[in-house]
Amino acid sequence: MKFSIGIVGLPNVGKSTLFQALTKKQVDTSNYPFCTIDPNVGVVEVPDERLVSLASIYKPEKIVPTVIEFVDIAGLVKGAHKGEGLGNAFLANIREVTAICQVVRQFSDADVVHVNGEINPEDDRQTINLEMIYADMATLDNRLEDIEPKAKSGDKKIKQLVDIYAKAKTFLDTGELLSRADFNKDELKVISELNLLTMKPMLYILNADEADAATEKPGFLTISAKVESELAEMPLNEAMDYLKSLGLQSTGLERLIKASYELLDLITFFTAGPKEVHAWTVKRGALAPVAGGRIHSDFELKFIRAEVAKWQDVVEYGGELPAKEKGKIKIEGREYVVKDGDVIYFRI
Ligand SMILES: Nc1nc2c(ncn2[C@@H]2O[C@H](COP(=O)(O)OP(=O)(O)O)[C@@H](O)[C@H]2O)c(=O)[nH]1
Ligand SMILES: [Mg+2]
Q1: Is the full-model pTM beyond 0.90?
Q2: Which ligand is nearest to the CA of 12?
Q3: Would the CB of 14 count as within 6 Å of ligand 1?
Q4: For the residues 264-279, what does the mean pLDDT come to?
Q5: CB of 12 sitting under 6 A from ligand 1
Q6: Sign of CA dihedral 167, 168, 172, 176
Q7: Per-domain residue ranges for the chain?
Q8: How far apart are alpha carbons 281 and 128 in whole angstroms?
Q9: Which string of DSSP letters, residue by residue, matches 262-279?
Q10: Ligand 1 centroid vs 127 CA: distance in angstroms?
Q11: For residue range 170-194, what is the model confidence (pLDDT) as tens digits?
């Protein structure tokens, strides 16, 4: 299973610059057969100190970090929902991603034209969000058109759908993203099936000038795409010095990747042995057999039990067996909810 983040925004806000910086360090995609091979899709490692610690214990032949996909989606312009620019194609690309990273422009560079003629991050955000709201309204209208005739025949189920779609439309009419709406469990199920754009988790990136790379703006993650593209070219020690000179602790990319991971509500578990130390991703709340299924379908189908340790214990006691001797490995069954940082040994 893969998780992808679409980089969305007006033209010339720095989306591709950011995307190229993100994908500068290519991962070995043969480790990730589920990933898409496409120039607009970049497979990016999720940095994880725990993986490094576990690897220092096992000294495995192979270390496999977990990844997320970033998709560079071409600029969305005002009127996209009516087909302006390549409107509908862009909106279709956004529909396929799990979450959205929306870039707005703060950097002031007279040589780079702003499509609206002035730098105004709030305005950028408004334009993009409105296009997605209009696109969702169109989706809901289409669905309603399909089912309203059937609702007239008195089918209760259909009537319920009509009510839920109408509720969503009324909410979108207020200009808010649907992800902010208060849906109950049944409504949520119906709405989720439509794959609406404004239901997707969203992260806002403020692409700032170099001098402002360390400033904070509530609700935004500040990054200078230009700085990031330079950092991505530098040897590590030079990059560290440069970061310090800008007053930053970590690269914008690292912060972006971590924030994306949190946005998707994902957690990481590990498998560890002398052959391979491997980080895997599941949705928070996943049960042990589902986690096993990430590795091999047999691990899900023939799941018997999981032996689970905290990564700190495996590191502290120097491996699975010593951790077991200290009573730090628990036997868990099918109902076990996987925790972030678990090291799991599946038994099938
Ligand atoms: N000064 C400055 N220029 C940038 C920054 N990010 C992007 N640019 C420039 O803006 C132009 C458009 O960037 P691009 O990434 O292609 O924008 P996109 O249309 O959103 O993909 C390019 O000339 C970039 O070099 C930045 O942070 N600072
Ligand atoms: Mg671009």
Answers
A1: no
A2: 1
A3: yes
A4: 95
A5: yes
A6: positive
A7: 285-347
A8: 30
A9: HHTTEEEEEEE-SSEEEE
A10: 19
A11: 999 999 999 999 999 999 999 999 9
pLDDT in tens, 192-239: 999 999 999 999 999 999 989 888 888 999 999 999 999 989 998 999
Helix pair 252-263, 15-22: axis angle to 10 deg: 90
The listed CATH number (3.40.50.300, 3.10.20.30, 3.90.1530.10, 3.40.47.10) that belongs to domain 285-347: 3.10.20.30
The two structure tokens encoding residue 125: 């955000």
Q: What is the DSSP letter of 59?
A: -
| Residue among 7, 20, 93, 109 whose CB has most ligand 1 atoms within 8 A, to mutate | 109
Distance CA 311, CA 318 (A): 10
Q: How far apart are CA 224 and CA 204, in angstroms?
A: 13
From the CB of residue 91, how many other CB atoms can be counted at a distance below 10 Å?
23
Residue 184 corresponds to which tokens in the numbers above? 């109950």
d(CA 62, CA 16): 31
Residue 178 sits at the vertex; the CA angle it makes with 132 and 191, to the nearest 5 degrees, is 105
Query: What's the CA gap between 332 and 336, in Å, rounded?
Result: 6
Identify which of 348, 300, 346, 309 has the alpha carbon closest to the alpha carbon of residue 329.
Answer: 309
294 in Cβ contact with 34 (< 8 Å): no
